[in-house]
Amino acid sequence: MQSGRPSMMDVLLLDEVCSVSRPGKRRGLFWKTLLGLSVGFPLAVGVKYATAEPRQRRRMRIVVEGFGRFCRSLSVGIFISVDYWWTTNVALRGMDEVRSMSADVCVCVHQSRH
Questions:
Q1: Of 22, 45, 93, 111, whose CA is between 20 and 30 Å from 29?
Q2: How far is 113 from 73, CA to CA, in rounded Å?
Q3: Are 31 and 59 within one domain?
Q4: Residues 48-70: tens digit of each pLDDT
Q5: Does one domain contain both 102 and 64?
Q6: What's the pTM?
Q7: Residues 57 and 65: beta-carbon distance below 8 Å
Q8: What are the residues facing 2 on neighbouring strands?
């Protein structure tokens, strides 16, 4: 080590020593479990749907469509909230409320975005 800085050999040696104690296997296990669940669960639900009676299929379809509507409504609500927050805290930061420019910006925000 010269001038207080580690040499390349010191860095490589330290990396080898530290890599032995790193939990790399656990991270691999996590991703394998996540992959297994993301493939296995939909597959199991698909098999259940395919083997279900028509009345159960209809019930399952209604639940899935309802969940989709809920997620779509939630995403629109979050988007609107973030848009209002951004406009209030970033776009209009430091502007006086009575100034006409802030009123113009608010009018632009409330217009539909086609």
A1: 45
A2: 18
A3: no
A4: 999 999 999 999 999 999 999 99
A5: yes
A6: 0.50
A7: no
A8: 5
